[in-house]
Write a structure and sequence with these properties.
With about 375 residues, the protein is α/β, with parallel strands linked by helices. The protein has a single domain, classed as Rossmann fold. About 40% of the residues lie in helices and about 15% in strands. The protein contains twelve helices and eleven strands. The chain has helices at about 10-25, 35-45, 100-110, 115-120, 150-160, 180-185, 200-215, 235-245, 285-290, 300-315, 340-360, 365-380; strands at about 55-65, 80-85, 90-95, 115, 145-150, 165, 180, 195-200, 225-230, 265, 325-330. The strands form three sheets. The chain has a seven-stranded mixed β-sheet with strand order 1-2-3-8-9-10-11, with helices on both faces. A two-stranded antiparallel ribbon has the order 4-5. Helix 2 packs across helix 12 (about 365-380). It is globular, with a radius of gyration of 20 Å. It holds the Pfam family Lipase_3. It comes from Xylaria multiplex. InterPro entries: AB_hydrolase_fold, Fungal_lipase-type.
Length: about 375
């Protein structure tokens, strides 16, 4: 009997989703930048050989904490890395929300202020990517000006502004290998395919970073794609149209996770329902209470209050948030009504994470990565 391969028999889309979700694992842990970064790198080095593409880390990983970088308390604000396979696919994986990060809450909820996206991107250069500044949107120019949530732009700026270490053979010294992710990508020859991927917060940062770099002519020689999941709506209709025109989606693959340039979302996941307040959009905040979640009489007033706060943040922006092109799948419907906040956390966690692992078929890899990360984290602490 022939010996079985020691890798998981995953297709390319599954492999990229594994990279995306691996970045997310770090977000649930606390530690200093250096500690979390070391554990992530060791975990990736151990587990990536289980994927058939012969993936190796080519940039990073980078763990960024805005404050208390050396403290063992608090989680990362952003996590990202690049990995390359033997077929010259380079995947930039961006992590989702860290539950121990107030900065991530700001990136998620910072939708009441917006940035003129094109005006900001025009300032990008090989020398500098300036911090985004909010603007006062004109409600009459929504069809001609692309507006993006300030919180999302801050997250994208964190990804693009902070340098990491690139694995480039043409750099003579280690110091020369320290560069921003866009600098690393710009050094790749045109034969490489670049895929930006992320889930949750990463699911909105990945398309925004990709769109910005395309508009700024930082990665124009490459074939660039986006594989995002569970992302919120980043901005207005003009921004969504710009993304769709820059990264067209192959419509013949509708109904599967094997499709680039859309937001892949579970229809019972509340996260991608933000921030549209138009019932005409397939993802909008009204869906959360009208279609997805049922609350007990005791919790319903509180749920309605939280829903109204979310809609108020969206309205305060003075733009109409519109989802990026999306592709939904139907997970297992939550059993309701929800009786406690613990029930809500459990249901949201299942629908926002596990449902994706199971549907895409990467649960075995993710369980292995979780175990490896926790084992190495424990060894690092000793």
């Amino acid at each position: 009997m022939p010996s079985q391969p020691n890798w998981l028999d995953y297709n390319l889309f599954q492999q990229i989703y594994c990279l995306s979700m691996s970045a997310n694992i770090v977000s649930g842990h606390e530690g200093s930048e250096e500690t979390l970064q070391n554990v992530l790198q060791q975990s990736l080095n151990r587990v990536l050989p289980k994927l058939p593409g012969k993936w190796t880390i080519s940039w990073g990983p980078k763990v960024f904490k805005e404050q208390n970088k050396d403290s063992p308390k608090g989680g990362p604000d952003n996590v990202w890395f690049a990995a390359a396979d033997e077929s010259k696919n380079v995947c930039v994986a961006i992590a989702g929300t860290a539950p121990h990060s107030w900065a991530d809450m700001g990136q998620n909820l910072g939708v009441n202020k917006v940035v003129d996206f094109d005006a900001w991107v025009r300032q990008w250069s090989s020398d500098n990517i300036p911090k985004p500044q909010p603007c006062n949107p004109n409600e009459n120019d929504g069809s001609t000006v692309a507006y993006c949530a300030k919180g999302t732009c801050i997250g994208a700026w964190n990804i693009l502004h902070n340098p990491g270490t690139a694995a480039l053979s043409n750099c003579s010294t280690d110091a020369a290998k320290v560069m921003r992710i866009d600098e690393y990508l710009s050094r790749l020859d045109a034969s490489h395919t670049v895929v930006f991927t992320g889930h949750s917060l990463g699911g909105v940062l990945a398309p925004v970073v990709a769109l910005g770099l395309r508009k700024a002519n930082r990665i124009n020689v490459h074939d660039v794609k986006v594989l995002a999941s569970a992302g919120v709506s980043p901005g207005n209709d003009k921004l969504a149209r710009d993304f769709a025109e820059t990264f067209p989606s192959p419509q013949e693959l509708v109904g599967t996770y094997k499709v680039y340039n859309t937001d892949y979302y579970n229809e019972f996941d509340i996260v991608p329902q933000a921030w549209s307040i138009s019932p005409a959009d397939d993802r909008n905040l009204y869906n959360i209470l009208n279609r997805i979640l049922q609350f007990s009489d005791k919790l319903k007033p509180w749920a309605e209050l939280l829903s109204n706060i979310a809609m108020g943040l969206s309205r305060a922006s003075r733009i109409r948030y519109v989802p990026l092109p999306g592709q939904g799948f139907t997970g297992q419907a939550p059993s309701g009504p929800i009786q406690s906040w613990d029930d809500l956390r459990r249901i949201v966690g299942e629908q926002h994470s596990l449902a994706y692992w199971n549907t895409i078929g990467i649960t075995d890899f993710m369980r292995l990565f979780e175990r490896t990360f926790c084992l190495l984290e424990g060894a690092e602490a000793e």
